[in-house]
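Chain and conformation:
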Amino acid sequence: MNVRITAMAFAAAAIALGTSVSAQNVPSQFVVSGKLAEQIQDFNTINLATAERIAETCEKLAAAENPPVAISIYVLDPDGNHVYMDRMDGQGYLNIITAEMKARTALAQRAPSKVVMNQVRRDPNSELQRIQLGLFANSGGLPVVINHQMIGVIGIGGSAPRVPVWSDEICGHKAMEQVLGANNVAPLVEDVPNPPNTPPANPAPVPRFATTATPKTSVSNPAWVVGGRGASTVFDGNQISLAAAKQIAKVCRDFAAGKNGSMSLYVLDTFGEFVHMERMDGQVFNNIRTALMKAQTSLRTRVPTSVYNAQGRNNPAGQNRTIAQYDFFTNSGGIPIVVDGQMIGVVGVGGGAGGGGDENCAIEGLKATFGDHVTLPVYQQAATTAAR
């Protein structure tokens, strides 16, 4: 990039800054604070509001490109827990998983993932060792540092680079500058050129695999599913859209906050890939992890996890098989997202939602997003057939 900083210089600068200014307070608008910070015994963890702003800013930058591009973005806390995740419509498996791999590389290194990429470019034989260490040699992972304190990391994947105009890393860097202030964001690390590549004498032909037809959806409202170019990319017209997933999450978030509580939430597509994730401030590992496990159980079974919760209470002996052999997580809070009779994704909620119930939190989000078009759990023992 314009500012040339080597990996060693980056590390040396971080050490120098750390010795000149220590134990600096991070402004409360960027981190979990107050009683919630006391609850998790951590005043230096990126909060949901900051993570969401960084993600949405990067997405706006991607959409504003000409032509528009799509990205996947993960925000992790310093312990490696998911805080926020979005994948824009049309993103596939590699786009999604590489974003997290970049974030975890930045977390492990306490430096941009491009540092690892540059090391491998200088010495391609070193990549195997980096892989053994769990590192991903690509740019797009960046630490989030305020007042010399790392409060989290971000990882962006999914778009083709056009350095120095555009890349996943440039998107994340610009987003952090807008949200955190340019003075809180380190300059980009230098891009080391790729080593010369000798093409094979007889290169194998690479097939093109594309369709001219846009997949059709069976859902009544096209805004609820990925459409157009995105649907053509993934060959699926019935995959829940990011906009619909975020609407479910927003309503559930408000439901939990209205009960003076919090929640963690995952929305997955029908292939089990992440569409959207968020964890409200004060949530800890088990809240986050159980939300994902509930979503994954509903995806496999095509029913709410409350079905297995009730069956376990009615027949405790049956839980052994369900949990140990089927690998289901049987707490309530996971629901298939079935709209107009078509399953388009799953939602999993953990954390209690302020005592309002994880399943009820998910239901509120589903009803507000899809209205009467969504299928909801029905409890026959209730006085009416309405979902509780």
